[in-house]
Specification:
Helix content: 55-70%
Strand order of the largest sheet: 1-2
Largest sheet: 2 strands, parallel
Number of strands: 2
Strand content: under 5%
Length: 239
């Protein structure tokens, strides 16, 4: 009887998880989960192809999900979150915002995705610990800053110094959030990661963006690097 109850609970958990996975590999998979659903994005669902092609369905799904307090649950991996950052950047730009955090987040996530490839491991630029750091850190940051992105989206467009201050505050929050995970890294993994960000290896030289300067264990150094990515001149962390 106990075993049966455990099996039932496990089944319910699996079904619950499946219902929250809003990206589907095909229209057939979508219909299996939502037999009466319409593939138009208005239910917050999309296909992998929609995201990759940045279709109107992907646009509609994001517009629905950004209104949800727990909308972050709809994006299950680094690829989906990277796609969302790009959508958010383009959407807020079109609305007149001058904030730059989403663009920097998209660029950073795009680089970090490369550390999850077999080539990165084979070339000595990554390892299992770094992979776990990238995957875990990406999820933790995305989930935590969702409410900030939602609030910004619902706000009047920020421009000029107001946009810079907002970017700086969110970046600092992000770096404080991820700091314990940097400090858990072994010396070997930290060295590999730092070499990649400093573009000291052939693999990392093929990655777009600025070279990191400073100490990866320094919140301020990481913050300054992020502000540089956003093309801010003489940023002040105490502003």
């Amino acid at each position: 009887m106990v075993a049966l109850k455990r099996l039932l609970i496990l089944t319910l958990l699996i079904l619950s998880f499946k219902a929250e996975c809003k990206e589907f590999s095909s229209i057939d998979d979508y219909i299996k989960t939502f037999p009466a659903g319409k593939h138009n994005g208005l239910d917050g669902n999309w296909l992998k192809a929609d995201r990759e092609k940045e279709s109107e369905i992907w646009n509609q799904a994001n517009k629905i999900n950004i209104k949800k307090p727990n909308g972050y649950l709809e994006y299950q991996d680094i690829y989906q979150r990277c796609g969302f950052y790009k959508w958010f950047e383009l959407k807020t730009d079109s609305l007149g915002f001058e904030t730059r955090w989403a663009e920097a987040a998209k660029e950073t996530t795009s680089k970090l995705k490369k550390l999850l490839t077999s080539i990165a491991i084979a070339s000595g630029n990554s390892n299992k610990e770094i992979e776990e750091f990238v995957v875990t850190g990406n999820g933790i940051i995305f989930d935590d800053i969702w409410k900030d992105l939602k609030a910004l989206y619902e706000h009047q467009p920020l421009r000029g110094i107001d946009a810079e201050i907002w970017d700086g505050h969110l970046l600092l929050k992000e770096q404080n959030l991820i700091d314990p995970y940097y400090r858990k890294l072994s010396k070997t993994s930290l060295t590999k990661l730092q070499k990649s960000l400093r573009k000291e290896t052939t693999f990392s030289k093929m990655m777009a963006g600025f070279e990191f300067e400073g100490n990866l264990l320094s919140i301020q150094d990481r913050w300054l690097y992020g502000m540089k990515m956003m093309h801010y001149q003489n940023p002040d962390i105490n502003r």
